[in-house]
Amino acid sequence: xxSEPTERIPAALRTEALEQLLTExxxxxxxxxxxxxxxxxxNVGPLNGAKVVAKAWTDPEYRERLLTDGTAxxxxxxxxxxxxxxxxxxENTATTHNVIVCTLCSxxxxxxxxxxxxxxxxxxxxxxxVKEPRAVLAEMGLELADDVRITVRDSSSEVxxxxxxxxxxxxxxxxxxxLIPLVTRDAMVGVAKVAAP
Length: 197
Description:
Blueprint: H1 11-24, H2 30-58, H3 60-68, H4 70-76, E1 87-91, E2 96-101, H5 110-113, H6 118-121, H7 123-131, H8 133-139, E3 149-154, E4 160-164, H9 176-179, H10 185-189
Parallel strand pairs: 1-4, 2-3
Helix pairs in contact: 2-3, 3-4, 7-8
């Protein structure tokens, strides 16, 4: 007979309880854990991806290599590791828009995007973006013209996807370093566009 509760405790509370238990037993240093999480959320991931995008925007030969073999081109910049063994890069254009999802769990290219945001792991996003991508994108603040074709890319343990967003108009004179801060994680997942400065 199972003694499993009928209602699950929210994930945030379970995570907090687990961290507290591990800390009390001396298995985890919360300060080190916070630094690790912050590093992946803000430094390692999205910043790496932004560097990849900015290089592709300013170097046509690199862009071609990136779209031909994303994993190898990303590795050229030193970004490798767990969850980045096979990354395919797709380009958003004026007529084609790609958006990324993992319908089974939350497969995500950590070396270039860091930790996945909570909405990416949410069952509602995972189910709805496949069925009604235009509506989901609109709810997230991205309105696309009716003539823009939307392709939903499903990440898996074998392949993780990265979007090369459109370079915004008015940035033609900006160099790679100036472009990096414009590129957001959401644009590289395909739920936003890169805004001009």
